[in-house]
Write a structure and sequence with these properties.
- The protein has 2 domains: 172 residues, no CATH class; 161 residues, Mog1/PsbP, alpha/beta/alpha sandwich (Protein Transport Mog1p, Chain A, 3-Layer(aba) Sandwich).
- The longest helix has 11 residues.
- The strands form 5 sheets. A 7-stranded antiparallel beta sheet has the order 16-17-18-22-21-20-19, sandwiched between helices. Strands 4, 5, 6, 7, 8 and 9 form a 6-stranded antiparallel beta sheet that branches.
- It contains 4 helices and 23 strands.
- The N terminus is likely disordered.
- With 348 residues, the protein is mainly β.
- It is elongated.
- Helix content is 10%, strand content 44%.
- The termini are close together.
Length: 348
Amino acid sequence: MSLYKIIGILAVVSTFVYAMFLGTSFSDKRSAPADYKDATYVIDGKPVTLAHGVAESPVAPDSVSKIITRYFGNEVTHDFDGDCREDVAFLITQETGGSGVFYYLVAAVNTKDGYVGSHGVFLGDRIAPQTTEMGKGNIVLVNYADRKPGESFATRPSVGKSIWLLLDTKTGQFGQVEQNFEGEMDRTRLGSFMNQYLSSEFGIEFFYPKNYFLETKEFGNAERRHVAIILTEDTKENKAVREGRAPGREGPVAITFDLYQNPEGGTPLQWVKGNNNSNYKLSSTGTIRNTIVASESAVAYSFSGLYEADATAFAHRGYMVLATVTYLTPEDQIRKDFTALLKTVLLQ
């Protein structure tokens, strides 16, 4: 199984709009068009329906200025959802009444009912697209030229860039993939991450630093399990806290995988916003980013409590898995270890 470090790049409101207008999966569509140039896509959180590759709408009510969305091209074909039908990914542009020409990557999945459009991924303003290629699996490679930081838009784009994007066909969203981090797990590349956690019951495997102590605790009940996999730095002070020999001292910062039995199902986004165990209500910004852990769709956010915390939630084997790191300052090593650890997760 490939390992991906993926940075969520789509707003939460896009997920809601996509679900409201297009449904919750690519396979459940009733009025999808026969041509992808007539399909509906979600651009900056709003549905845009093309007609022969073009869509126009007023910038504001009674405004003479228009938002114009156009098919640009640079398309690639691929069977993204594995149904033996040829799907397509391509670039579109959008003009919003000013001088900007904004470029997006979108995909259209060819279902039995017709083409279903994805969320668009913003690439840049007045860039110079080069090529679009297929990478491994559902990864789309977009190559383009951009400007140097601070350069005027009057300057011709001269800086070559590439972005690798992975399409999740369940949600119609792309996530950004760290380049050159593909392939099966290779222990020789793990460095200090040489301790292994493997659970056949939960189907989760990961590697973690040798200087961490791992313990598993049960907090749930017979009706709804809650299992916590806790990693803390293996110091004398932390050991005293674990063994109850440091009364009055708060628990140490930690990396935790909380597995909550989730018979209701639902998406990670729904769980995070609707379940108090997520601590999402403690988020000062309310920002949620879409990402992927191993091959599963996930959402990531931050919150503040006794400590600062970063959290990533994903569903697996009937559980909602909440991976969390707590820390004192953004530069703390445990935060870096958490990021590296998530890259080693394998799901069975």
